[in-house]
Design brief:
Chain lengths: 296, 248
């Protein structure tokens, strides 16, 4: 049982690490204030779930989720990325909520608050008793691919422009770069990657419902990125580990100590405290951004 | 003529920052733009480089109408500018900043995954060129330092270097030697002189003495208008200029 518990935690860490890397591409490297990360996570989860219920394979569902998230990302990015940075934050947070309410209310489509049950799990019959172990491998293979993909992007001339946009967008335009296009591209990539994570999430739980996609998911990913080290892909993975361990660890606390407050509230308080301590004493995160010494 | 500015007007609220400015600049010259604070020098640079759209008037660059083009397109046509307050990229090293400025960079997404070989080739060429320019500006030894870790003067050199890296036909320099010691200031202008055969320069500067030494033509602005223009000798003897600067 303890093994199952550890494996379950590993799956969650992996899923959130993918989300954190996708946010890192958007915010860590490009300063795009995406406060609607959960929207693309949910899109992946729902697309995968709905398609697999009609008989599509795991891969097909994931690919469709990526495509739909990319299109939704483009839809959000086009009108907002031309505006000041804070508008993107407002629009994305609203978009996440709109999408959640859509999943909640369109009962004919998503089964509303009752959620979608019995989402088929890929290769379940093959692995059967070792299924958890298989899923950990599946999640971590995906995580490694996402990590390498992100590293390749940021360590390229394309990534160099992203970092420059983060520092001073106007000055980048003075060198003939259409900064808006760069921002749209990375936003679409980030959205697709978040969708991959959502697909893994849906197939893992075999059940999803709209109440899994509150804005708190977004904030949790932000916490991982800030604590882990913005603009460092290994850092944000470390952040995902730390925040997940903290969240789960505090759940056990109630078995050992008597507290004057509700234990689940304590968890939120402690994560908040952790975040504040990091911002005060280690603002660069667990692993800070590396100095780039060139591609050669 | 490489640059022709015709009767440009630009207002901010009730203030006419540019009130019918016309400027013609010839190929391979260094032109200076002087004038008191608030006379509209930087506004003119912003309008020419596409950062501001003029209310009236036209801007032609190399015979092409660039009046309402966005900055990145103006830059692609071969005009690069620097900023008055040096705007360097905080998270980037000197070398990275130089590479960013290059126009030959393979900065699309496709080559990142599918044409790595060509990307690395371009990168190698760009690095070589960047190092040459940094060497020319005598800051090559700083190439792996963060750009913001450079001294004020070195930062000015770097922004000149970035402008040169883009290999533009025309460079607009906004106060390239402000806050720089006289020796280094002279050196910066000597570097500009050496580049003159390859490109055209328009320089906004408060250090009038240095402009008099290095410029072919000087434009004098006051209250949004060009009040005088000519060779340094002519401008120095011009009554209006003496008025503007000594307060008439």
């Amino acid at each position: 049982m303890l093994l199952d518990y550890v494996l379950d935690m590993l799956v969650y860490i992996g899923i959130f690490a993918i989300l954190a890397i996708s946010l890192n591409l958007e915010f860590g490297y490009t300063r795009l204030m995406n406060f609607g990360k959960v929207a693309f996570f949910a899109t992946g989860a729902y697309t995968s779930a709905l398609l697999s219920m009609t008989g599509a394979s795991f891969i097909e569902g994931m690919a469709a989720g990526m495509l739909i998230s990319a299109l939704l990302g483009l839809l959000v990015a086009l009108p907002t990325l031309r505006l000041r940075a804070d508008y993107l934050a407002i629009v994305t947070i609203a978009f996440g909520e709109i999408l959640r309410l859509f999943f909640l209310n369109e009962v004919w489509f998503t089964n509303g608050p009752m959620g979608i049950r019995g989402i088929p799990q890929p290769l379940y019959s093959v692995f059967d008793n070792d299924y958890m172990l298989f899923y950990v491998l599946l999640v971590y293979t995906t995580l490694i691919i996402c990590y390498l993909f992100a590293e390749r992007i940021v360590n390229s001339p394309f990534g160099r422009v992203l970092k420059a946009i983060r520092d001073d967008e106007e000055a980048v335009q003075a060198f003939g770069k259409n900064t808006c296009m760069f921002k749209i591209k990375i936003f679409i990539i980030g959205s697709s990657m978040a969708s991959v994570s959502g697909s893994l999430f849906a197939h893992y739980l075999a059940f999803i419902s709209p109440d899994m996609f509150y804005p708190t998911v977004t904030f949790s990913v932000w916490t991982m990125m800030v604590i882990g080290g913005s603009a460092n892909n290994l850092g944000v993975i470390a952040g995902a580990v730390l925040v997940q361990v903290f969240e789960r660890g505090t759940r056990f606390l109630k078995d050992f100590v008597v507290l004057p407050i509700e234990p689940s509230n304590l968890r939120v308080i402690l994560i908040g405290l952790l975040l504040i301590l990091f911002l005060l004493y280690r603002p660069d995160g667990i692993i800070k951004e590396e100095k780039n010494r060139g591609l050669l | 003529m490489i640059l022709e500015v015709n009767d440009i007007e630009k207002s901010f609220g009730g203030i006419k920052a540019l009130d019918g400015v016309s400027v013609s600049i010839e190929n391979n010259t260094i032109s200076g733009l002087i004038g008191p604070n608030g006379s509209g020098k930087t506004t003119l640079l912003n309008t020419v480089s596409g950062f501001l759209a003029p209310d009236k008037g036209t801007v032609y660059f190399g015979g092409k109408d660039i009046t309402s083009l966005p900055p990145f397109q103006v830059s692609r046509l071969g005009m690069t500018r620097t900023f008055q307050i040096t705007r360097l990229f905080r998270g980037m090293t000197v070398l990275e900043s130089m590479l960013l400025a290059s126009k030959t960079q393979d900065d699309g997404l496709f080559p990142v995954f599918f044409n790595r070989k060509k990307l690395m080739e371009t990168e190698r060429r760009d690095v070589q060129k960047a190092v040459e320019i940094l060497d020319f500006l005598e800051i090559e030894h700083m190439k792996h330092e963060y750009a913001v870790a450079l001294s004020g003067g070195q930062q000015k050199l770097l922004s000149l270097g970035m402008a040169l890296m883009a290999d533009p036909r025309m460079v607009l320099l906004d106060e390239p030697v402000a806050g720089v010691n006289p020796t280094l200031a002279n050196k910066i202008f000597e570097k500009v002189m050496l580049e003159k055969e390859k490109r055209t320069f328009l320089v906004v500067e408060h250090n009038i003495d240095i402009l008099m030494n290095f410029c072919d033509i000087i434009y004098v602005m006051n209250k949004g208008r060009i009040v005088a223009s000519g060779t340094p000798d002519e401008v120095q003897r011009n009554e209006t200029v003496i008025d503007v600067y000594l307060g008439g």
